[in-house]
Amino acid sequence: MYIGELARLANASAKAIRLYENLGLLGQVQRLGKYRIYTERNVLQVQLIRQAQSLGFRLSELAPMLHAAHGEPDWALIAQHLHEKRAVVKTEIKKLHALDACLLQMQAEIHDCLQAQLTAQQAACTSFPVNQHVD
Q1: What are the DSSP calls for the chain, one per residue?
Q2: Which of 28, 34, 52, 74 could be joined to 68 by an S-S link, Cβ 3.0–4.6 Å?
Q3: Each residue of 52-62: b (16+ CB within 10 Å) or e?
Q4: What is the pLDDT of residue 1?
Q5: What CATH number was assigned to the domain covering residues 3-73?
Q6: Where are the domains of the chain?
Q7: What pLDDT is attached to residue 11?
Q8: Residue 53 confidence (pLDDT)
Q9: Cross-referenced PANTHER family, in alphabetical order (predicted)?
Q10: Is the confidence at residue 112, as pLDDT, over 90?
């Protein structure tokens, strides 16, 4: 199949497919004259690349995972990278939860301040709430 058909089947642009090929992510692509001839295997490769990108992997990270032995994906290495990516995500989630807690605290302090203003206790709102969250 030609690049247009591959692009349609893999839901990728021809430009992206050419980039993947230039980076060596598709392995050796057959040619017929000046045309590249792609196979069903290339469809699966492009789909895997796009899925990996959607999970936060950079193209530069993918080459060792995709062509370890005989041009086949190294599933053990992929599993290891997924495990590492999950650890990074979990750390980021913890940071976001801490940030959310600080935002909630500040929001509550401002709410209390506004309520105090309504009851004529304006002295309660003389300064901006100080957040102890330091990243």
Answers
A1: --HHHHHHHHT--HHHHHHHHHTTTT-PPEEETTEEE--HHHHHHHHHHHHHHHTT--HHHHHHHHSSBTTB--HHHHHHHHHHHHHHHHHHHHHHHHHHHHHHHHHHHHHHHHHHHHTT-GGGGSSPPPP----
A2: 74
A3: beeeebeeeeb
A4: 94
A5: 1.10.1660.10
A6: 3-73, 74-135
A7: 94
A8: 93
A9: MERR-FAMILY TRANSCRIPTIONAL REGULATOR (PTHR30204:SF69), REDOX-CYCLING DRUG-SENSING TRANSCRIPTIONAL ACTIVATOR SOXR (PTHR30204)
A10: no
